[in-house]
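Let us work through a complete example step by step.
Step 1: write down the sequence.
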Amino acid sequence: MDIYQEDVLRWLHILAVVYWLGGEWGVFQSSFNTSNRSLPIEERRRHFETAYRIDIMARSGIILLLPLGVHMGFNLGAHPWGGEWLVLNWVLGAAWLALAWAAFIHRYDDLGLKLTMIDEKWRYILIPALMITSVYSLYTGGPLTMKWYAGKVFVYSLMLVIGLVLRFIMRQRTQMFRKIELEGNTPALEQRIQNHVRLGRTLAYFYWIGIMFTAFLGATKPF
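Step 2: predict the structure and record it as tokens.
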């Protein structure tokens, strides 16, 4: 049963990485048409909606990687938090995933904006906690007792930072498109959209490298 459980966790972990990496590629490609000034604003809005629908799968992947990684890490002996801690790990993971999906469902109204802000505030707590724990463990050998695991947690936390910036960009772009629909387009709004898209594309390259390196650490356990 334990072997079967580990196989299922590994399978889910692989799926989460696939949706994370593949989804980010889809969002990246959709961004070209959202910033294409030669297209009607309605067409650009449809491409932005496509990007949002792809992004929720990538976002689900990155969220699920945390409870999966914590559970698998305990099974491997990489940290001591089992039992009730694993239950809490999955409860928090499920709550975070539900929050992300609720924000997605209400993405075009005020409730969605409030839920997105709650998601962002949660990351402000989670990211420093992961960074401090991983760096401390790399230098002292605990509580994350395997260095490759601590390194993976650290890179994952860096990816959450980039993801937070990308989420901010998408939120701002949503508000800009809403403003265009209500008040009409202006050169200033167009320039803001172009700047946001340009920054998002640049960050995407670092995001892909980080995702692949995170997977590399987990697959090879090099140190």
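Step 3: interpret the result. Residues 137 and 144 are 5 Å apart (CA to CA).
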